Amino acid sequence: MRYKEQARIEDIANHTDAASYGPDFPDFTSVMDDCRGRLRHRLSELLSTEQLCRQAGDLITTRTEALVDVDEFTLPVVSLTIGNPNIAKHCLLLTAGIHGVERIGTQVLLAWLETVIERCRWDSHWRSQFESEIAIVAVPIVNPGGMLQDSRCNPNGIDLNRHAPIDAEDKVPFLVGGQRISKAIPWYRGKRGADFENEFVALQNIIKRYCQVDRPSIVVDFHSGFGFQDHLWIPYAYRRQPIDDIGSYVALKLLWERNFPHHNYVFGPQAMHYLSHGDIWDYFHRQCRAEGITLLPLTLEMGSWLWVKKHPQQLFSFAGLFNPTVPHRHARVLRGHLLLIDFLLAAARNIEHWQPKGEQEREMQQMAQSLWYRQL
Question: Considering the entire predicted model, what is its pTM?
Answer without folding.
Answer: 0.92
